[in-house]
Sequence to fold (1194 residues):
Amino acid sequence: MSHQELLKPLDVQGLPLQGRHIIEASAGTGKTFNITKLYLRLLLEKQLEVQQILVVTFTKAATEELRGRIAAEIRDVLTAKRGEFELNKTEPDQSLQQQILLLEKALLHMDEAAVSTIHGFCKLALQSQPYLNGIPPNAELEADCSDLLIDSIADWLRALSASQLALLKVKDPDKFYSTYRDAIDNLIPILAPLDETQIAAKQAAYKQQLLQYLLPLTNEIEQVLVNDAAANQRKKRAAEWQRISEFLNDDMALDNEILEILCGFFRQSRKFSSDDQQALNKVTPLFDKQSGIEALMGKVYSLRKQLDDSPAYQLLCDGIEHIRNEYAKRKLDAGRLDINDLVSLLSQKLQQPDAKPLIEALAAQYPVALVDEFQDTDAEQFGIFNALYPGGNPAQALFMIGDPKQAIYRFRGGDIFTYLAARESADYRWVMDTNWRSSAQMITAYNALFLASGEQQVFGQGIDYAAVNFPPADKQKSPASNVLDANSNMQALNFIVDIAGPEQEGKKLSAADKDTARQNVVNGMVAEIAHLLNEVQLKHQPVQARDIAVLVPNAKLANIVKEALAGRNINSVYLSDRQSVYKSDEANELLLVMEGLLNPNSDGKLVSALSTRLMGGNAQQLFELQQAENDALWQFKRDEMAELRHQWDVQGFLPTMMTLLHRYFIPDAHRHERSLTNILHLLELLQKASQQFRYPAQLHNWFVQQKQLDKGGDSHEQRLESEANLIRLVTLHGSKGLEYPFVFVPFTTEISDPTKAGNSAKACLKYYDHQQQANRLSLQYDDEIVRLVKQEDAAERARLLYVAVTRAEYRCYLGVSQFDDEQHATPLGLLLNLQAGSTLVSRLEQLTAQHADMHLQFADELMQLLPANDLPIQQALPELALSEFTRKLQDKWRISSFSGLTRVSQAMRLDKKERTDTEAVPVIVQPAPDFSQLPLRFTLAKGAHAGNLLHDSLEHLDFSSRDIEHWQQALKQPMADFADEQLQAEQLIDWLQQALAAPLPALHPEQTELRLQDLSRSQTCRESEFYFSVSAPQAAALGEFLAGFRQSKHQHNPLPLPDELSGMMHGFIDLIFEHQGRYFVADYKSTHLGFALSDYHHQAIEQDMQAHFYDLQYLIYLVALHRHLEQCLPDYDPQQHLGGVYYLYLRGMHSQGREGIYARYIEPDWIAQLDALLRGNNTGSHVSASGVMAGADL
Fold:
């Protein structure tokens, strides 16, 4: 029974919500739609929370789309159920009401839903579980740790002896990495070198093959190659034959001498003839390239080379293993991890003998997982899910969703063999086989194409193709009603062939001939694109450029298409451009301009800058400038550059560049959008860097380094220059998941040797060992390994063509360039099971004659239909209309904060002026004292800048350090940001040391007096950002709570609230610290209350606290801390673990008293009640005032 016969049609509403499921979703079959339906069942039937349903996919964009689709589905179902509930309000359905509550809760917490990439999930798992060790707690995730890798390689090379170095072909660390990158980066076993015994066994097997070739034909060989040889060759050949005969009839080994004789004697290029036609017919096949003696000799030579290279090979194997381990160690020591480390570390942790607590914790946290795009999973990733969801637990479920026919990411680690192994372990197998994307004609056509070979497994071992169904007639996309094309024979699937006439078929083509063939196909397709834009309607409207996509293998071939389109005045955009913006022409020009500004007196730098488009450079201007008598023009240009340089020094980098752009910039007429996009992108990156590198020379050096480093990262990739109505150029890999009405695939006959990088052989080959059922790497070439590599590559290229064809809704055009005798090895040739020597055109003519939904057209015929001219494509302008806004907004949902709430309050109290935490409430106006006699704490300017200086300083200080160098270093950047030349570090240090030495009163009987300087860094958490959900508490209930809390403290300053508070509460807590097992909140205030320590007494601070609603602030902070400790502290008890709050008015704090300190313990019942109110539970009762007063309030 085939795998396809084991699959059952997916019943998303009826499948069991337990066990391990494999769901094979062919292209366009509504995979995301069914994922959302399955998610809703898990919410309603298993009553799981969104934080418990792990949804994993492989890109950040896909996670955001999936999260949005799930939220939209929840809203739609919730709306329907609310309507149903209202209809039956007199007899409410308790089950329905429960479902509504579950959906409302899920929607409210959707931002917390466990929808992430595999790397995001691994990061969360590594950070959240206390069972993990060996990972630095402050490890930073970086896109690039290559400096540590190069250092590891350099150290290994440095440790080798001279004789060992002589064995290596590459001795430079950077070149070594580029050569053996696949072996170093892929943490899979490297095939051990063959030993002499294994090689001898292979040589013996090859000799047996030789005997089978030669012994039955010894007489014929002697007759044709010796007796009938030319007279001047006969003696030499006789001697060679004598030596070969001795080898055949003796136990001689296949040594190098006999190999040379055999290869010379049976040289494929040797010309021979004989009057004995019968003997000649028997001898001739021995010289066949593929199966003759020469092919066998190639295998033997390869084997001998393996033996000769064995010492070097073993050294490389040992070295690469050492480099892998050393690189991993250095990253951990440095607290730096790259994105792939996340998966590797978690996978390794889960395989360890002591992993049971971790597995149980993660499985309890995520009882169900849905893994999207599962065909792109690798062995390490599946190892994680296999460990967490082993099967047999009715409370668990693992849904593996993917399409093996779309497994196209082998180059970045995707492993189809992992998918096939996982499929075998599934308890349930389902299939989605109804295509909702394409028209019935399109589906019929590509079914015929993918079944044309007569072999089901055209996409690789274990991957069947079964015909895909189309939807019921009333839900189909019909070309007859949607595509109006009166002047064309085109069908759903069209083949555009480069050369008309059978005389070209199978002809050996030069590189230039191949370029011409490619160009012919592209030109034919561009002619058809022009026809679509000018003459065809889609859904009763002219076809738009955005309806058309051209899918290409790479940027080089995309450029061929882009230029051909431009030749017809058809604009296009390449959506898959991943080149670094630092490598762009605009980056080179910007660097020249910066160097000109930095060196305005250098004639060479000045001319280089003026030659750029950024400076409006043109040949005439440069010619005039360099005339000997034009000194005035030279001086004028120097003055202009000096003016810009002065602006840079005074106003900064970005204003200078904007002045330059407005004054001089001339965009490239052929790529103005691309050019302007790159310039603005570069200016954004440079402006951001200028915050750190403030001096022009520093910023220039940073820019030079970025151009040289060539680091990866999303921020460096060139941005899409336009989202206008343009033809979309997309790579084949980048097209996955997309759909377009019309799809063009010009290069279906392009092939490359997977064992080569350019014109050189790859140093490392990755392949799948079917006996070991595991991936392997080999640094030596073996015929069987090469065969497996080419077989896997051919299967993936066929899958890539499947992805391309299935992007089309109505039409797909496949380009066919007839490249000599390699047509059978092309992706299209593989799908058609084309045999060597056969031609694609003849096979396609046969196929299109059998299927009405296919059509074959020669490219030159298409070009004749459209006159060659440079007139722009005339498209009817669409009728302008306002777009209808259909999105459902949650207009009451918002992110709130203490500042936002108090702004609402101050706005409602029109008689009072809005205040900040750095303004005091004026009590008595006194004349200012002599500032020259006052310490810094009283003279430091009021306002936000002073607050930032103090907060930033305390954030970076180690409170317990007495090292003056540490203090100076910690304060260096905050003082630089404060930018006051009169500020002395010694004064600031003295002030802050006094504040840290101030005694904080104990808030509990068992608590000892505390000073901040007694706290180690590990006891503190600085600038803690928090978000927590707020579930629409009733304003009246919340107001009543706050009034009760304030009355208990004799506070009469009312706090008006917005009508509804719903969404998220957000804020930053200056300091959380642990002392004697309790956790405290502290907040720094730079408020100026007076010019003497005595001005910072309890009554003044109390008044300031009330005036600015800081009681509300610390209540919010305590709820945030309470919720956090609930999640991460085992056996959490608020009575035992919550300490209280300290508000520290820094200007009044000193080591000899308690001025400037507000301290208070809040009864946990108050915090619990506010927490319940913010969660939407309005049934709690108030705590008595006496309960609060029992706490300390100082």
